[in-house]
């Protein structure tokens, strides 16, 4: 409310009236004020509010308006506009309220016209005419129009350029709105989290019906409540479907790759296959985690080191080990096998080759040799020769 | 003395890396203990100074450019100590006796020698036992003085010998 300032109703140079509305009450934040039943004028620079009986007006500069929201009316309440405002400049003249804790005001439209006014307001803010009003006079803009009316290639090019500029502006403005929306969404998520925590704390007092209902509200808002995510987590229907799709799409490729594929490669391949409807790494991971439960031909396996792979459910570990040992035995006499060597000989990703060697070591089939030449592996002669 | 025959493990590079698999590691340590003992025996090494272990030929094989790292050497020495083949001279574990035979075994050997050369009831100096011409063909020839004393003490405890002190020289009387 402290953004309003006293002024008279006369317009300054370059200012022109866009629209007006009657029966407007001002709110400071969500609080009603005594400024009721006034006449609201929108110019290309300001909003002016004046009570019928008074001679002075209240002014609000459009440059202070950050975001406009519309609040639908009900049986007992009129439709309202919520205006989120930025800090007023220090040079601003005195207003009815010296300082206010709220950074938004509301305009209540008793006699309707809320939406129309909002559109006009949005347009006025979008055009930002107050920026040019001090530098350019109406005559000059007329001259501009005259020039752009030139025909010929130059004229067309100019028109295209102007159009591009406008599009750019529109886009950046759209993103500005998006930013605001994101800011608000963050608050929303916080709020929902608070509420759901409360529900959990008082779970004795709130029936499970209430909880379910609340969750459905949140979901209908499109906000994924973290708590519900934990609850359903990997078990949710979406991931089941995704798991089936992954298995179907990748089964053959995994088999061709020797029965094992790194999760990172799975992620790349599935997204490549999908083209546009890209998946997040988290969704892929979640989907892979439920594969085992769904008895799909592919399952996820996590090595002790944390490396995660997708492998065919029928993969014979013994055969894999035999293949690894075959390579190890071949190089028993010429300096052992490093992960890189195995990767080259078996056509495996390096990470996977390393896992195979470590696995062989774990089964006491291979022994390690750590030296300045790096980590190499030999067949376990300690057992076989002793 | 014959040239020491290195076991096959000595030229197997993984031998010089302490294995992480518990079973393999146990087998590896067995091999290490056996190697250190047989090497000590062959080179008549009876004392090991931990600070110098890394320069001992047994712990490194330049032919395959491998050496057992210091902390792994410590593991091997600890294992030897656990098996009774190494006895630390003090609690800081800086030096230890490498006992490729236990003192009691040495004592028995010396006593058998004394019996066979009819030295019972006679007094021998310790120098005589380890350095004398009569023992040149014995295993305890050149035995470390401290280890010899330990061996003789075990004889003393079982009543087969009596240690004597001649001031600057020590002797033993076999009973």
TrEMBL record, chain A:
Matches recorded under Pfam families: EAP30, Vps36_ESCRT-II
Chain ranges of the GLUE N-terminal domain: 1-137
Gene Ontology MF terms in the entry: phosphatidylinositol-3-phosphate binding; ubiquitin binding
Gene3D superfamilies on file: 6.10.140.260, Pleckstrin-homology domain (PH domain)/Phosphotyrosine-binding domain (PTB) (2.30.29.30), Winged helix-like DNA-binding domain superfamily/Winged helix DNA-binding domain (1.10.10.10)
Cellular compartments annotated: Cytoplasm; Endosome
Biological processes, Gene Ontology terms: protein transport to vacuole involved in ubiquitin-dependent protein catabolic process via the multivesicular body sorting pathway
Record function comment: Component of the ESCRT-II complex (endosomal sorting complex required for transport II), which is required for multivesicular body (MVB) formation and sorting of endosomal cargo proteins into MVBs.
Assembly information from the UniProt record: Component of the endosomal sorting complex required for transport II (ESCRT-II).
Protein's UniProt name: Vacuolar protein-sorting-associated protein 36
Organism: Halocaridina rubra
Organismal lineage: Eukaryota, Metazoa, Ecdysozoa, Arthropoda, Crustacea
TrEMBL record, chain B:
Organism annotation: Halocaridina rubra (Hawaiian red shrimp)
PANTHER family, alphabetized: VACUOLAR PROTEIN SORTING-ASSOCIATED PROTEIN VPS25, VACUOLAR PROTEIN-SORTING-ASSOCIATED PROTEIN 25
Leader peptide range in chain numbering: none
Localization in the cell: Cytoplasm
Gene3D superfamilies registered for this protein in UniProt: Winged helix' DNA-binding domain. Chain C. Domain 1, Winged helix-like DNA-binding domain superfamily/Winged helix DNA-binding domain
TM stretches of this protein: none
Main location: cytoplasm
Keywords on record: Cytoplasm, Protein transport, Transport
Keyword Cell inner membrane part of the UniProt annotation: no
Protein name as annotated: Vacuolar protein-sorting-associated protein 25
Listed InterPro entries: ESCRT-II_cplx_Vps25-sub, ESCRT-II_cplx_Vps25-sub_N, WH-like_DNA-bd_sf, WH_DNA-bd_sf
Source superkingdom: Eukaryota
Homology family: Belongs to the VPS25 family.
BP GO terms, sorted: macroautophagy; protein transport to vacuole involved in ubiquitin-dependent protein catabolic process via the multivesicular body sorting pathway
GO molecular function: protein homodimerization activity; structural molecule activity
Cellular component per GO, a single term: ESCRT II complex
